[in-house]
Amino acid sequence: MADATLPEGAAVRPGEDDLTAEQRDRRRRLIDAAFELGAEGGYDAVQMRDVAATANVALATIYRNFSSKDHLLAAAMTEWTGRLRDRVATRPPREGTATEQMIEVLGRACSAMERQPKLSMALVRALSSSDAGVRQSGTEVRSSIASVGDDILAHLDPEVRADILAVLGHVWYSSLVGWANGRSSFDTVTTELERACRVLITPYER
Question: Transmembrane ranges (predicted)?
Fold first, then answer.
């Protein structure tokens, strides 16, 4: 994958808050192109030249935004979890215990990933990269996932809530890695998350 790493001499990428409206639009088109290519062909199908062509931008423009295709895919994962957060905010679970509500929300996320297995595997694989941009995106992904559960666990002490959400994030990621590597079925992901919710949250409801 000769086009997957930052070319020598490429410019330092600005933060998204520093971008103009036009630059943000191009960045969004690049992420949407990564979604499209990843959904069709998985990780190997997301080549930077193909992303550039699909998004109708110059190849150099990609590298002004993303250091590698792993960084691009990790940014796509950030976008995906942000959309999940927004959907939950507009349609939160209203019935059941906190444990049941958390299981429902995480179940929605798992169902969305299961419907796009090639894309989901590509996103999970990218998050395993040591690329500095990926590390930042990973932090944003964890923040989005945590915010999904903030309202559900609002009755808990803030430190306890943060600990529970952090552990749930780790369980989700590790089970997704096992699935993406072919070591388990996707049912294992949902089973592990449900078990973690019951172990971590249910004791605080008694």
Answer: none
